[in-house]
Design goal:
Elements lengths: L15 E4 L3 H11 L1 E7 L6 E6 L2 E6 L5 H13 L4 E10 L9 E10 L1 H6 L11 H14 L3 E9 L7 H8 L3 E5 L2 H10 L3 E11 L8 H26 L2
Parallel strand pairs: 1-4, 1-5, 5-9, 6-7, 7-8
Antiparallel strand pairs: 2-3, 3-4, 5-8, 6-9
Protein backbone atom coordinates (compact mmCIF):
# COMPACT_ATOMS: atom_id res chain seq x y z
CA UNK A 1 0.00 0.00 0.00
CA UNK A 2 1.03 3.61 -0.49
CA UNK A 3 2.79 5.28 2.43
CA UNK A 4 1.65 8.52 4.04
CA UNK A 5 4.51 10.65 2.73
CA UNK A 6 6.33 8.59 0.07
CA UNK A 7 3.24 7.82 -1.93
CA UNK A 8 4.55 4.86 -3.87
CA UNK A 9 3.41 1.28 -4.21
CA UNK A 10 5.36 -1.86 -3.41
CA UNK A 11 7.46 -2.61 -6.47
CA UNK A 12 7.99 1.05 -7.35
CA UNK A 13 11.12 1.34 -5.20
CA UNK A 14 14.32 -0.55 -6.00
CA UNK A 15 16.36 -2.41 -3.39
CA UNK A 16 19.12 0.21 -3.74
CA UNK A 17 18.11 3.81 -3.00
CA UNK A 18 20.17 7.00 -3.17
CA UNK A 19 18.92 9.67 -0.76
CA UNK A 20 19.59 13.33 -1.65
CA UNK A 21 17.93 15.95 0.49
CA UNK A 22 17.12 18.30 -2.38
CA UNK A 23 14.32 17.38 -4.83
CA UNK A 24 16.13 19.21 -7.63
CA UNK A 25 19.21 17.09 -6.98
CA UNK A 26 17.05 13.95 -7.00
CA UNK A 27 15.67 14.88 -10.41
CA UNK A 28 19.15 15.74 -11.70
CA UNK A 29 20.57 12.40 -10.55
CA UNK A 30 17.71 10.46 -12.12
CA UNK A 31 17.88 12.31 -15.43
CA UNK A 32 21.68 12.39 -15.66
CA UNK A 33 22.83 9.00 -14.42
CA UNK A 34 19.92 6.54 -14.65
CA UNK A 35 18.44 4.87 -17.69
CA UNK A 36 14.67 4.83 -18.20
CA UNK A 37 14.05 6.73 -14.96
CA UNK A 38 10.38 7.13 -14.05
CA UNK A 39 8.80 9.28 -11.36
CA UNK A 40 6.96 7.24 -8.72
CA UNK A 41 6.36 9.87 -6.02
CA UNK A 42 6.04 13.64 -5.77
CA UNK A 43 3.82 14.29 -2.72
CA UNK A 44 5.26 17.13 -0.58
CA UNK A 45 8.05 17.45 -3.17
CA UNK A 46 9.52 14.18 -1.92
CA UNK A 47 10.39 13.30 -5.49
CA UNK A 48 11.22 9.64 -6.10
CA UNK A 49 12.52 8.05 -9.29
CA UNK A 50 13.46 4.52 -10.30
CA UNK A 51 15.65 3.55 -13.23
CA UNK A 52 18.74 1.47 -13.85
CA UNK A 53 22.49 2.04 -13.65
CA UNK A 54 24.62 -0.47 -15.55
CA UNK A 55 21.60 -2.75 -15.52
CA UNK A 56 21.06 -2.52 -11.75
CA UNK A 57 17.68 -1.14 -10.60
CA UNK A 58 18.27 2.00 -8.51
CA UNK A 59 15.89 4.50 -6.95
CA UNK A 60 16.61 8.11 -6.05
CA UNK A 61 14.40 9.42 -3.25
CA UNK A 62 14.32 12.94 -1.82
CA UNK A 63 14.51 13.10 1.99
CA UNK A 64 14.09 16.81 2.58
CA UNK A 65 16.28 18.65 5.09
CA UNK A 66 17.02 17.32 8.55
CA UNK A 67 16.56 14.15 10.55
CA UNK A 68 12.78 14.31 11.14
CA UNK A 69 12.07 14.24 7.42
CA UNK A 70 14.88 11.78 6.63
CA UNK A 71 13.68 9.36 9.32
CA UNK A 72 10.14 9.40 7.91
CA UNK A 73 11.40 8.71 4.40
CA UNK A 74 13.76 5.94 5.54
CA UNK A 75 10.96 4.28 7.54
CA UNK A 76 8.57 4.35 4.61
CA UNK A 77 11.21 3.13 2.15
CA UNK A 78 11.80 0.14 4.42
CA UNK A 79 8.09 -0.63 4.25
CA UNK A 80 8.23 -0.29 0.45
CA UNK A 81 10.97 -2.90 0.09
CA UNK A 82 14.22 -0.93 0.00
CA UNK A 83 17.24 -2.87 1.26
CA UNK A 84 20.19 -0.45 0.96
CA UNK A 85 19.94 3.29 1.69
CA UNK A 86 22.79 5.62 0.71
CA UNK A 87 22.59 9.29 1.55
CA UNK A 88 24.20 11.57 -1.05
CA UNK A 89 24.48 15.21 -0.05
CA UNK A 90 26.73 17.95 1.26
CA UNK A 91 28.46 18.69 4.54
CA UNK A 92 30.35 21.51 6.18
CA UNK A 93 33.98 20.66 6.75
CA UNK A 94 35.27 20.57 10.33
CA UNK A 95 38.79 19.21 9.91
CA UNK A 96 41.22 21.49 8.03
CA UNK A 97 42.24 18.63 5.74
CA UNK A 98 38.68 18.40 4.38
CA UNK A 99 38.64 20.88 1.55
CA UNK A 100 35.67 22.26 -0.39
CA UNK A 101 34.34 19.73 -2.94
CA UNK A 102 36.17 16.83 -1.25
CA UNK A 103 34.35 13.51 -0.97
CA UNK A 104 33.65 12.31 2.58
CA UNK A 105 32.51 8.72 3.15
CA UNK A 106 30.94 8.43 6.59
CA UNK A 107 31.75 5.42 8.75
CA UNK A 108 29.48 6.61 11.59
CA UNK A 109 27.62 9.72 12.75
CA UNK A 110 27.72 11.49 16.10
CA UNK A 111 23.95 11.85 16.79
CA UNK A 112 23.70 15.50 17.86
CA UNK A 113 20.06 15.62 16.77
CA UNK A 114 16.66 15.24 18.39
CA UNK A 115 15.24 12.53 16.15
CA UNK A 116 17.65 9.76 17.07
CA UNK A 117 17.37 10.80 20.73
CA UNK A 118 13.59 10.38 20.62
CA UNK A 119 13.73 7.12 18.67
CA UNK A 120 16.14 5.72 21.25
CA UNK A 121 14.39 7.12 24.31
CA UNK A 122 17.62 8.89 25.19
CA UNK A 123 19.66 5.68 25.32
CA UNK A 124 23.33 5.94 24.29
CA UNK A 125 23.91 4.68 20.77
CA UNK A 126 26.42 5.00 17.94
CA UNK A 127 24.68 5.22 14.54
CA UNK A 128 27.05 3.60 12.06
CA UNK A 129 27.15 2.96 8.34
CA UNK A 130 27.09 -0.65 7.19
CA UNK A 131 30.59 -1.99 6.65
CA UNK A 132 29.73 -3.42 3.24
CA UNK A 133 28.52 -0.03 2.01
CA UNK A 134 31.58 1.79 3.33
CA UNK A 135 33.88 -0.83 1.82
CA UNK A 136 32.17 -0.71 -1.58
CA UNK A 137 32.23 3.11 -1.57
CA UNK A 138 35.93 3.29 -0.72
CA UNK A 139 36.72 0.69 -3.36
CA UNK A 140 34.67 2.60 -5.94
CA UNK A 141 36.41 5.87 -5.08
CA UNK A 142 39.83 4.29 -5.36
CA UNK A 143 38.98 2.61 -8.67
CA UNK A 144 37.81 5.95 -10.07
CA UNK A 145 40.83 7.81 -8.74
CA UNK A 146 38.62 10.05 -6.59
CA UNK A 147 40.41 11.48 -3.56
CA UNK A 148 38.32 10.93 -0.46
CA UNK A 149 38.15 10.88 3.33
CA UNK A 150 36.52 8.06 5.29
CA UNK A 151 35.58 8.58 8.91
CA UNK A 152 33.27 10.14 11.45
CA UNK A 153 30.71 12.86 10.74
CA UNK A 154 28.35 14.69 13.08
CA UNK A 155 24.61 15.01 12.42
CA UNK A 156 23.04 18.22 13.73
CA UNK A 157 19.67 19.97 13.63
CA UNK A 158 20.61 23.66 13.67
CA UNK A 159 22.31 24.58 10.41
CA UNK A 160 23.37 28.07 11.53
CA UNK A 161 24.38 27.13 15.09
CA UNK A 162 27.80 25.67 14.29
CA UNK A 163 30.80 27.90 14.94
CA UNK A 164 34.46 27.51 13.99
CA UNK A 165 35.24 26.80 17.66
CA UNK A 166 32.59 24.05 17.80
CA UNK A 167 33.92 22.59 14.55
CA UNK A 168 37.53 22.54 15.69
CA UNK A 169 36.58 20.96 19.02
CA UNK A 170 34.84 18.09 17.28
CA UNK A 171 37.55 17.85 14.65
CA UNK A 172 39.94 17.17 17.55
CA UNK A 173 37.68 14.21 18.37
CA UNK A 174 37.87 12.82 14.86
CA UNK A 175 34.82 14.44 13.23
CA UNK A 176 35.42 15.31 9.57
CA UNK A 177 32.34 17.46 9.04
CA UNK A 178 28.74 18.29 9.89
CA UNK A 179 25.57 17.28 8.06
CA UNK A 180 21.89 16.85 8.92
CA UNK A 181 20.54 13.38 8.07
CA UNK A 182 23.01 10.51 8.44
CA UNK A 183 22.41 9.50 12.07
CA UNK A 184 18.67 9.07 11.57
CA UNK A 185 19.13 7.14 8.33
CA UNK A 186 21.70 4.84 9.95
CA UNK A 187 19.45 4.21 12.97
CA UNK A 188 16.21 3.58 11.05
CA UNK A 189 18.06 1.29 8.65
CA UNK A 190 19.48 -0.68 11.59
CA UNK A 191 16.05 -0.98 13.16
CA UNK A 192 14.74 -2.56 9.96
CA UNK A 193 17.77 -4.73 9.20
CA UNK A 194 18.75 -2.64 6.17
CA UNK A 195 22.18 -1.52 5.01
CA UNK A 196 22.98 2.18 5.01
CA UNK A 197 25.74 4.51 3.96
CA UNK A 198 26.44 8.20 3.54
CA UNK A 199 28.55 9.97 0.93
CA UNK A 200 28.89 13.73 1.08
CA UNK A 201 30.63 16.51 -0.79
CA UNK A 202 32.16 19.29 1.29
CA UNK A 203 30.33 22.53 0.46
CA UNK A 204 32.28 24.86 2.75
CA UNK A 205 34.44 25.11 5.84
CA UNK A 206 32.43 25.62 9.03
CA UNK A 207 32.51 29.31 9.85
CA UNK A 208 33.00 30.38 6.24
CA UNK A 209 29.68 31.84 5.02
CA UNK A 210 30.71 31.37 1.39
CA UNK A 211 30.00 28.06 -0.27
CA UNK A 212 32.42 26.61 -2.76
CA UNK A 213 31.90 28.12 -6.24
CA UNK A 214 28.89 26.54 -7.94
CA UNK A 215 30.82 24.84 -10.73
CA UNK A 216 33.37 23.40 -8.28
CA UNK A 217 30.60 22.05 -6.05
CA UNK A 218 28.80 20.60 -9.07
CA UNK A 219 31.95 18.69 -10.03
CA UNK A 220 32.25 17.40 -6.47
CA UNK A 221 28.62 16.28 -6.48
CA UNK A 222 29.17 14.52 -9.80
CA UNK A 223 32.12 12.59 -8.37
CA UNK A 224 30.12 11.70 -5.27
CA UNK A 225 27.12 10.40 -7.21
CA UNK A 226 29.26 8.37 -9.58
CA UNK A 227 31.11 6.79 -6.65
CA UNK A 228 27.78 6.00 -4.94
CA UNK A 229 26.40 4.36 -8.07
CA UNK A 230 29.57 2.37 -8.65
CA UNK A 231 29.35 1.24 -5.02
CA UNK A 232 25.81 0.03 -5.71
CA UNK A 233 27.07 -1.99 -8.67
CA UNK A 234 29.74 -3.58 -6.47
CA UNK A 235 27.19 -4.42 -3.78
CA UNK A 236 24.84 -5.89 -6.36
CA UNK A 237 27.55 -8.08 -7.89
CA UNK A 238 28.74 -9.26 -4.48
CA UNK A 239 25.20 -10.24 -3.54
CA UNK A 240 24.96 -12.44 -6.63
CA UNK A 241 28.47 -13.93 -6.50
Amino acid sequence: MSQIHVRAQAGDVAEYVLLPGDPHRARHIAQTYLEDATLYAEHRQLLGFTGTYQGVPVSVQTTGMGCPSAAIVAEELARLGAKTLIRVGTLGGAAPRVRPADLVIATAAVPNDGTTRQLLGGAPYAPAASFEVVEASVQAARAAGVAHHAGLVMTEDAFYASTPEHARLWASRGVLGFEMEASAIFLVAAQHGLRAGCLTTCSNDIGDPQLVPEEVLANGVDRMVRVALEAVVRLHRAARA
